[in-house]
Sequence to fold (270 residues):
Amino acid sequence: MNRQLRSLIFDFMKRNHIDDSRRLNQILSSSNDAGLVHKMPPIPFTGNIESMEKGNCVCLLGINPLWPAPGKKAHDMELKPAINMIRRLHDGDDNSFDDYLTTRLSYFSSGIANWGHFDKVGIGYSEYFFDGVDKRSVWNKNAFAMDVIPYFSRDATSLDRKRIVEQVSADSSLIQHQRILSSIISETQPLFLHLNGSHAIQVVEKLYCKHSLERQGELGSQFGLRFGEAVINETKIKVLAHNQFGYGRYNPSKKHWPEFARAWRNWINK
Fold:
């Protein structure tokens, strides 16, 4: 990790995330409560961004991280340790920042990954976009994840999309996070951005796309499949987007990856 990016992340994690999340709770929701979790520090990135194959990787970009339900193993394996490490950082232990960075870089190799979430996309990446990997090893060098809003909540629908677009360039904490996002994108030069969900699609279109993403025929009508181009800090990136993976009529599942990949190849080659 270069010195500039490390410094950006260090300064961001030194912020008072409780004050930031309380302020954002009010300004990112029309009801004055976006549901952001005050006690949890933000997540600047997920995955080994240091090992990415530059120009041959994908960034899974979401709206914000999901706070797990009570009793989920993530609380003990990932979240409580992160809270403690950042608390130590705020108490003056700069070494705890190195510990924290290690947990973010090793997320997919240390046994704490939420594979129930990441396997759904990893299987598509490994089978249709990157050679010699499987749905989990693809995260070693070819895939990482970030969010537009790096603060946890139980329900992203409480976030007002229009307000997010306004505040990303106005709120001090979100400005800092955008600098981190821009720096990581510049360093890794992803082959494409992958947007899994309508919230992320609408926000990313407004923030980073000069033109609306193009719906792709019947797949676009039913599953919201869209392709296009984004520009993040002068870096141009292709975008693959669709409704969130799920079980509803308009939600795709991993079985739709072959159709999505075929449509993508046709779009790229036209």
DSSP finds eleven helices and six strands in the chain.
